[in-house]
Amino acid sequence: MTALERENASDYLEGLMEGFVAYDGDWRMTYMNAAGERLLGRRREDVLGKTWHEAFPHAVGNPVDHMYQRVMRTRSGERMEYYYPHYARWLEISASPVRTGGVGVYFRDISDRKRAEQAALEERRVYRAIGDSIDYGIWICDRDGRNIYASESFLALVGLSQEQCSKFGWSEVLHPDDAERTITAWKECVRKGGGVWDIEHRFRGVDGKWHPILARGVPVRDEHGEVSCWAGINLDISRLKRVEEELREADRRKDEFLATLAHELRNPLAPIRSGLQLLRLSPPAGEPARQALGIMERQVHHLVRLLDDLMEVSRITQGQVRLRKETVDLAGAVHAALDASRPFMSAAAHQLELDLPVEPIPVLADPVRLSQVLSNLVNNAAKYTPDGGRIRVSARREGDRAVVRVRDNGIGIAPEMLPRVFEKFAQLPGALARSHGGLGIGLSLARTLVELHGGTIQASSEGEGKGAEFIVSLPALAATTPPEGSGR
Fold first, then answer.
1. Up-side HSE of residue 121: CA atoms within 13 Å toward CB?
2. pLDDT higher for 437 or 375?
3. Taking the CB of residue 401, how many other CB atoms lie within 10 A of it?
4. How many Å apart are CA 226 and CA 194, to the nearest integer?
5. How many CB atoms within 10 Å of residue 382?
6. What is the pLDDT of residue 271?
7. CATH number at residue 182
8. Do 57 and 132 fall into the same domain?
């Protein structure tokens, strides 16, 4: 090599971002560039002319030392990545034999890359741990919906390998009744490319049982907003299903018990009512006896009404109620309901405001059941309104709906209770003192009957002490339909 060539080579090596050192055949350092000084933390004048082991005694016997020895011996280049505790950094090192009999070494700092790789590896471990902790884990599909990863927990459940589960292999263990539906829905979700995957289906486990799995997933998008893959979870909901079934069975048994209880309690009430009627025909002497008779009659009547409510809710829950629908004028149904509620209203000295349209509003309904719903709402308003209160009942056609509103200025409903007022046996705070012994099932019955008519019922209140409003909305028939059961 000429002097000019050596000078050009030196300029090239000095301009590198990589470190470079050269050793002769006796392992004496003959050259170190500026990047080498920076990366190794040594000045050239301190190491040039020294042997490899003299200049870097901390490296004696380490994997890099062994690699250098092999390169010198075999005259074949090698490369390795090594973490130097002495420098607290990762170096990528390439050693090659040179024509003069020595070894030339390039090295560069790869600590940032290694930290990123380590972080990614740790992240994968965390995600894998999360996936394995879920019954039964996570999955990843490519942009076309083909599976590329399923957590070990899911694979262990269905007895598939990662390779068998790839692409659409997981469909092999889907329940036959769910397979076509699932595959079709999944491909459609992928085709649209922007939705959320959410489905419940069954997978055959290695235990031979069908496991209900709730599958959910979302598209993962790149920096351009394009779907790069899909990621989601498979959640085994077997325990949840068992609990749901147990709750349904407990609810069914409760309804059966209530129906049996109501029926058995009505039997002894029949002769009691008959006896009271006979006493009324031949009233006992004395005012105290007559007052006692009146009290017994009222309490027996009240008890019969409670038992009727229990039997009613049991029949509805068990699907034993059959509606006898006919064309009914909404105003007529309101009047029928008020006739049933008027004694209760009068006893509390409530003021009734009635706002009904002149033109008929026909609906297809069971007149008895519709009257029962509206009467229930009026009675409910009367119960929870202090004596001498105001109750307003209005009916209107709103688009294709027939709407009845029952508004009172009573005790109102607290915001936290509004979502619960239609639940069975729900009672407002302090309601037992005001409800005249109601069981808290009237509004639940009303909601069920309204829904059986294809309608909706909702409650609103501005808060305690500010009254409440209940709104029933039913499908209205065309105005030209003649009412057959107007009730008036």
1. 6
2. 375
3. 16
4. 10
5. 23
6. 79
7. 3.30.450.20
8. no
